[in-house]
Amino acid sequence: MIGYLKGRLAAKHPPSLMIEVNGVGYELEAPMSTFYGLPAVGEPVALFTHLVVREDAHILFGFGTESERRLFRGLLKISGVGPKIALGLLSGASVEEFLRIVEAEDVAMLTRIPGIGRKTAERVIIEMRDSVQKLAPSTTMGEALAGAGPASAQGEAFSALITLGYKPAEASRLLKAADEPGLSTTDLIRRALKAAAKT
């Protein structure tokens, strides 16, 4: 199916947006986490996509990062969680915040997101507990297309720390402390491990 769209941002009215690709306007729905990173209307944009097919409609969802799309897809597998609730969860918390909520088993935090009741929050935490490590690295569509740069070095360093046994929240914290523009993946990992040794 459609894996990503790269074109010009034709319109944005949260939660809907339109991307014009070679004269064709694609309507998408996106979480607020994606909207925050969108350029101005008329500017180039690239988003990861997921198509939901229903009896009455085909709905295309757009995401600024691969990890947002992975989290959305993971949430859709949970009984009682549809696209609307999944979009609400992604709008109410970033992927990193969501991972921290799941790790802390913070049901109360999830129930603050509109449309999420206590039973749904508990089910989300139970079912997502084993998936958090797969959801962690966050690559934007631009970085995925460029294939290099400091942000993809961040993603690679993050994956390396997860492989070394660090929890996603801890890996994020260490990389944030170690980050400096232009650092290579190796330098980021080295700095993060030094920071971990001090704590």
Describe this structure in words.
The structure is a single chain. With 199 residues, the protein is α+β, with helices and mostly antiparallel strands. The chain has three domains: 4-63, OB fold (Dihydrolipoamide Acetyltransferase, E2P) (Beta Barrel), CATH 2.40.50; 66-134, 5' to 3' exonuclease, C-terminal subdomain (DNA polymerase, domain 1), CATH 1.10.150.20; 148-198, Helicase, Ruva Protein, domain 3 (Orthogonal Bundle). Helix content is 50%, strand content 19%. Helix 2 (66-76) packs across helix 3 (83-92), helix 9 crosses helix 10 and helix 10 packs across helix 11. The protein is globular, with a radius of gyration of 18 Å.
Which regions contain 5 or more consecutive residues with pLDDT less than 50? 146-151
The fraction of residues in strands falls at 15-25%
Number of strands: 5
The side-by-side strand order for the widest beta sheet comes to 3-2-1-4-5
Secondary structure category: alpha+beta
Tally of separate helices: 11
Terminal-residue CA separation: 46 Å
Number of domains: 3
Largest sheet properties: 5 strands, antiparallel
Q: What CATH architecture of the largest domain do you see? A: Orthogonal Bundle
